[in-house]
Amino acid sequence: MARYAGDSTARLGFALMRYSIFNLVRQALSGHRAWGPAWRDAAPKSAYDVVIIGGGGHGLATAHYLAKIHGISNVAVLEKGWIGSGNAGRNTTIIRSNYLLAGNNPFYEWSMKLWEGLEQDLNYNAMVSQRGVLNLYHSDAQRDTYARRGNAMRMHGVDAELLDAEAVRRMLPFLDFNGARFPIHGGLLQRRGGTARHDAVVWGYARAASDRGVDIIQNCEVTGFIREAGTIVGVETTRGSIRAGKIGMAVAGSTSRVAELAGLKLPIESHVLQAFVSEAIKPFIPGVVTFGAGHFYISQSDKGGLVFGGDLDGYNSYAQRGNLPTVEDVCEGAMALMPAIGRVRVLRSWGGVMDMSMDGSPIIDRTVIAGLYLNAGWCYGGFKATPASGWCFAHLLARDEPHAVARAYRLDRFATGHLLDERGVGAQPNLH
Amino acid sequence: MLLIECPFCGARPELEFVYGGEAHIARPAADADLTPGQWAAYLYARSNTRGVHAERWRHTRGCGRFFNALRDTTTDQFIATYEIGQARPPSVPAQKIP
Ligand SMILES: Cc1cc2nc3c(=O)[nH]c(=O)nc-3n(C[C@H](O)[C@H](O)[C@H](O)COP(=O)(O)OP(=O)(O)OC[C@H]3O[C@@H](n4cnc5c(N)ncnc54)[C@H](O)[C@@H]3O)c2cc1C
Ligand SMILES: [Zn+2]
User: Fold this and answer.
1) What is the C-alpha end-to-end distance of chain B, expressed in Å?
2) For testing the chain B interface, which of A315, A365, A367 should be mutated: the one with the most B CBs within 10 Å?
3) Cβ contacts (< 8 Å) between A267 and chain B: which residues?
């Protein structure tokens, strides 16, 4: 990893310092005043081999793997605000690969494997914490569907354990086991699931990509596409026009708007999802827990705050803030599951705009327009997908063919009927 | 809490309503002749407007009837509600909330 110390100096205009115990001690001796910036805030050039629209986790991860795996580093990531200002910086940070369908499971498991090696790859502490994800079940029928999902996971080589009520009680004695309206019968546990620090994932990918020569350009909104003979050859932006060999869209909640600039209408709706954090308390919840009888999920951050969420607000919205009925619904789920939480105060809540696909699964594919590639439809589970999404989108952009684990994420599946309906409830834009 | 004006019952809290997605999506005539792409466009493609959006709502916990609404998706403010079958009213921009 000597690369980090010396040879980037010329490219970046500053030496990217490798994070290590040695450098920490050295910096401490000089009062921590000599740490350089982690990545370079670039100005746009007139042309690149690849332009990525969207500086969220997916766009930055794509740039990193384009440079690292495919040797394509003449790349720009264009971000209309600041990197991580979208859903990447707003999510509840749950990572897992507990999927049922053969089209989904290998993709999310590849993501999990990348999470497991991410900090070494990026030389950045993304606080990946495999503290376990437990999905509770509350009826015999629900146990059967969870057992089926667990078996599908194990057949794909993914860890899954079906716990009975006693085992759950030993893990989480504070849940309501006393005559609850929806009694806890057990849970499906993925021990390798957990959480990661969302901003650190953004900054870590940005730093690693920038170090390999990728230009990260902020305050640069794409406002149009440049077309020549039916092919898209560049973008118009608030910082001028930029030409590109290929253009990849990774704009999450803004997907329909940016696609519209290219004349595309997609099977996506934008919906608001809220998240909540409580005041910090002593360690209480060891892993991630989800309620199976309503929609509620919770974990505890390393700072001590309880981080939780639930359903979408339920109607198309770009408002980036939610409404009170959903707040109430989420808190009711919390109280039904763990009454002790009623004594904790909510500190903050916020919303993010999600790209809800019509079958609840993502799209990583070419579009019908030559030169334009699409990464979208992440619904509200796209954080865990960040590494594999970047990996597979980079593969598609570099080689013009889908990566093996992302073959099902075709845009034409809505026409061919090969929908990926993980929940099995029919296509509608409120799945994840 | 949003207040939604049901054309039949008047203003009621949003809890009484269920959202029904984009309005005015007509099922194509001669549907036996549609290509898979045309079916996909009808079933799944959505305008997903940022701004004034025409959409269906149902007053499930009231009169039970469907109606249409214009709502600004950047503020969630309702601009108009109207009966199914009526043409979309002109989309005047939402008034600024004082
Ligand atoms: C409240 C909440 C909780 C969530 N919880 C989880 C969770 O626990 N686990 C999980 O796996 N997922 C979760 N998600 C989903 C996850 O956050 C998203 O699916 C994922 O972050 C989307 O990918 P991204 O990081 O690239 O998106 P974003 O960070 O939204 O990146 C898209 C970027 O594109 C930029 N952009 C848009 N238009 C333009 C333009 N015209 N020009 C230039 N740039 C543009 C935006 O500014 C934005 O920065 C949650 C989401 C929310 C909102
Ligand atoms: Zn009514």
Assistant:
1) 17
2) A315
3) 40, 44-46
